[in-house]
Structures are given as C-alpha cells and as structure tokens.
Give the backbone structure.
Amino acid sequence: MILEKIDQLLNEVNNLKANNAEEIEQLRLKYLSKKGEITALMADFRNVAADQKKAVGMKINELKQLALQKINELKEQNEVAEESADDFDLTRSAYPIQLGTRHPLNIVKNQIIDIFQRMGFTLAEGPEIDDDLHVFTKLNFAADHPARDMQDTFFISQHPNDVTKNILLRSHTSNDQSRIMEHQKPPIRVICPGRVFRNEAISARAHCFFHQLEGLYVDKNVSFTDLKQVLLTFARELFGPDTKIRLRPSYFPFTEPSAEMDISCHICGGKGCGFCKHTGWVEILGCGMVDPNVLEACGINSKVYTGYAFGLGIERITNLKYRVADLRMFSENDTRFLDEFVAAE
Ligand SMILES: [Zn+2]
C-alpha cells in the first residue's frame, strides 16, 4: 500500500511543471512542507512491517531527494527565463543614447595640433616631472630667477649643492625644447602639448596646473618673419580668416628677441568688450627667436642654426573660443559643464 503511494508520488515528482515562482512555491508546499505529501508518508511508515522498514525508508528518502532536486531545477529554469524575458522586453520605452564628450581642453588642443601638423610640425611629449637642468638651466634662466623660487614652482627634491639637480614639477612645457634639442639634430620642427604646474592659489583666473603647447623650429636661416607668418596662419585657422595679429616686444629668458602675440578679440570682433578689456585685442601666446645661449647649451651650433619658439596656454584659447568664465570648471568634472560639449569635434 505505502509502496504504491511512493511510486505514484515518484511519478508525479518526476513530471513536475511550473510556469512561475508562485506555482513552484505551491509545489514545494504540496510535497515538502510539514503538511506535505512526503511528510504525510512518515505517518504511514510507522505501520510498515519491521522487515520492510529499511527498503521503504530508502524509497521515501529517494522520493524526498528527487522532490528537492526537481523543485530546485524548476527554480533555476524560472530565473533564467525571467532574465531573458527582460532582455527582450519589446514593450519597454526607448531611452536616448548617452553620447560621450571630449573635454573642451582636448577639443581645442586637438584643433591646435591639427593646424600645426598641417604646417609640417611633428608631435612630441616630455616629462611632467623633470630636473632643473632641463626646465631652467639649459633655457638660460639666471641662477637667481624667481621661477626657481619655492613661491612659484613645486619642488619634489632640492639638491643641497647643485641647483641643476633639483627635481620639480615643470612650470612650462619648454623643458621639452631642451630635451628635444639634446637628442635631435636640426632641422627640428615640433610641437609639444602638456600639463604644467605653478604654485598659485586656485581661483577663477588662476590654477595650480594648466596646459600649454610649445612650438620649436630650428634650422638654417630661420627668421622672425617665418615665425610671424606661421603664427598668423595659425590664428586665422583657429579663429577665422578675418583674425588679425599684433606682436608686442617682451622678455623671456630663452628667446631673444621676444614678443607677446595678441589677436583681434574673437568675441567682439575688435570693437572692444569686457573680455578684451575694451582694447579689441587679446593676448594668446609668447614667442621669439631661440636665444643662441639655449642652442649652445643643448649642443646646437648657434653660428650655423637659428630657430624660433612659441608657447601658448590651452585654457586661455579655450576661454576665448568657448567663453568659460571660471578656470576651475576645467578640472571639476561637473557633467553639466562637460555635457555642453556633446558632439563637439
Ligand atoms: Zn572683445
């Protein structure tokens, strides 16, 4: 009698089916709960003859294991089915694709690189951590130049007897110039974009790190006229064909003569506005002929070769193109700001 009941249950359990988690739970209650059919068999088990108890007990055990296994299988199948149903839910509403954005500084940097590459400049990058020798000494900085002061430059280590061995965060990309001239013979025509560091209080108009792009051309017979023409072409490519430039005499340790270049204000078209302080002109870069001392310090014969160099701030040009009012926006990674550049080049 009990064996027939067990066989019947074995048959049932072998063919269990369920469509959802609720039905599976019903099956579990029916067979495995305290009031379930398999538990009920235990009551009958007491009446089984002693010589059959072992065989019947094993069979009940087999039934119980099978029921557990079947119900677990149904649970797993149900989970898989629910997951794949999610993947193919055609009733779900569509949501817009989130486009990634390039950082505005990278957008502008890439535009600048593109312009100079089309004029035959190659691209190089130098170290952000460098020694005094390459950042200052070879570039003709006087021993007591204020850039060597802790007030202006972040030092990593200072050598007690030899300042040229000081290790520091570069305060300009011009260390790339000295490193390139050391290893490469003219003609050299290269641009070097990179990050630079200065010991400044962070505000809307100053930051402790920013980005520069350095340009260097060294060859025979390179003249100031060449420099001026390259910079005019650059300004017109970047800001439009009507852009005017003007050069004002200036001073840098590593160029002689030196100049600062203004462009006609991109925002007011030269009429005068708040951005250009009502002058119609905006300063965008420093430049000049490479000082013969620098050429010699880097192993280039200054009687044979001449060269020009220029350096520009990428933040400054980005401000001019996109009118970013606060320098800190560039490094805060606020997506509301970055999202304004979606789908820009
Ligand atoms: Zn203006």
User: Anything to note?
Assistant: The pocket of zinc ion is lined by residues 265, 267-268, 272-273, 275-276 (CB under 6 Å). The mean pLDDT is 89.
